[in-house]
Amino acid sequence: MYALRMPFYPPGPPAPPPAMMSHAPYYDLGGYDMPQAMPPMPHAMGMHAPYNPMGMDPTGMQGMMGMDMSGMAMAGMPAMNGYMTGMPSNAGCVKIRGLPYRATVNDIADFFNGFAFNRETIQISMGYDGRSTGEGWITFDTPEEASRAVSMRNGQNIGNRYVELYMV
């Protein structure tokens, strides 16, 4: 009877140690070493604190949307930019899209000549490269004035480009 003999292999090098993790186990690195998902951030109320419900801001001031709390200003608490009155702080704000890249605050002010607005509220969005993105914002004195400006000036030209106006 023949015995089955297994071939003899000399012992090889030792197995490599387990791989070390170079980043947190909560997320994996995507292309260009950018995280695909961020790890949960610790919070003062525990790891997973409840989200802020409607009408609750991070400072703890409560109030349901649309609730008139302007009486608090009479009690010595400021109205905080329309927050306490239930009126959004951007009432009368209009987004301008399609601005010429060389448009200035003066160009926008001239375009809305005849409407009630504060010149200081005109903003032109700039990209990371320092050039205009072609978008801007203006705040009119009242929401009604903003609506009137949108209906009368939407699609009109500033320079050689037509602009689109949106209530914000």
UniProtKB/TrEMBL annotation:
**Pfam families in the record:** RRM_1
- Which SUPFAM superfamilies would you find in this protein's record? RNA-binding domain, RBD
Q: Which GO terms describe its molecular function?
A: RNA binding
Which keywords does this Swiss-Prot/TrEMBL entry list?
Answer: Repeat, RNA-binding
Q: Which SMART domains match?
A: RRM
Q: Where is the RRM domain?
A: 92-168
Looking at the keywords, is Repeat present? yes
Name of the protein in question: RRM domain-containing protein
